[in-house]
Amino acid sequence: MKARAAKTAAAMAPAGQASALKAEAAPKKRVSPAKFFEQVMAEAKKITWTSRKETWITSLMVFIMVVMTSIFFFVVDWVLRTGVSQILALVNAG
């Protein structure tokens, strides 16, 4: 967490201070593949997954929004198509 904070501070600092902050950041330690996968599993256990109900509700809301958006664009397309057709009919008739 401190390394991340140091990177953020370095990015936000003026050019002269950025190099000084980079020098203060500790070099990253290498870990063995076994330790890496152990850390990955530990982090994976911290994940809180959404419930089936939350997933269903969210999926339903996405579906509803997609339908509403498609109806909106269908109506806009129809209005524009009709308007352009009417204008072209007036131009060609006269």
TrEMBL record:
Start-end of Low complexity biased regions: 1-20
Main subcellular localisation: membrane
Record field: transmembrane: 56-80
Membrane-protein topology: Single-pass membrane protein
Keyword annotations of the record: Cell membrane, Membrane, Protein transport, Signal, Translocation, Transmembrane, Transmembrane helix, Transport
Cellular compartment(s): Cell membrane; Membrane
Domain of life: Bacteria
Gene Ontology molecular functions: protein transmembrane transporter activity
GO annotation, cellular component aspect: plasma membrane
Pfam families from the UniProt entry: SecE (PF00584)
InterPro entries linked to this entry: SecE_bac, SecE_sf, Translocase_SecE/Sec61-g
GO biological process terms held by the UniProt record: intracellular protein transmembrane transport; protein secretion; protein targeting; protein transport by the Sec complex
Keyword Transit peptide annotated: no
Region (Disordered): 1-29
Signal peptide bounds: 1-20
Subunit structure: Component of the Sec protein translocase complex. Heterotrimer consisting of SecY, SecE and SecG subunits. The heterotrimers can form oligomers, although 1 heterotrimer is thought to be able to translocate proteins. Interacts with the ribosome. Interacts with SecDF, and other proteins may be involved. Interacts with SecA.
Family according to the record: Belongs to the SecE/SEC61-gamma family.
Free-text function comment from the UniProt entry: Essential subunit of the Sec protein translocation channel SecYEG. Clamps together the 2 halves of SecY. May contact the channel plug during translocation.
HAMAP family recorded: SecE (MF_00422)
Protein name as it appears in the record: Protein translocase subunit SecE
Primary gene name: secE
